[in-house]
Amino acid sequence: MQAIKVVLPQLHTRQMEVASSPTRFRVLACGRRRWGKTRLGSALCMKIASTGGRAWWVAPSYRMSEVGWRLIRRLAAQVPGAEIRQGDRLVILPSRGEIQVRSADNPDSLRGEGLDFVVLDECAFMAEEAWTEALRPALADHMGRAMFISTPKGQNWFYRLWLRCIDPLQTEWQGWQLPTIDNPYIADSEVEAAR
Question: Is 0.85 topped by the overall pTM?
Fold first, then answer.
């Protein structure tokens, strides 16, 4: 299996910081205002798939998963020989790597696959069981990695993941609080207007 060359979207400095982190589990607490978490997650999924790995993008609902699917589909379309299965929300690259976009509205439907990487999009809004009972075990085969991206929603399981990141005894977890103002592609005036 030969890795393929994929032109990934340009990442800003803070996205590069997250992307280059060696930690296995990354937690990004972002505001709703355009930090670029979808761009980052999609780029990382493509990177894994381009080397023959299996990546999933998981959102709380089928409708919410469309956000990630649109960008992943656009990135895959640039790869000669990529197979894009719209109905399955599945991309298969010539490297035999794949990305599938899934919904966590039924956590049991996420069981069974071995994964190299998973993005849990807006995970504060999905059932914790999607992670603990289905996705976390799927990473065990290959010591796969996960990225949790969400806007906070009180002190739920996403908040508890965040607490792992600030525990100095945890070496596999790292967290970032990422405001929109960190995105150099968004005008400061837009951030101020939203406030």
Answer: yes
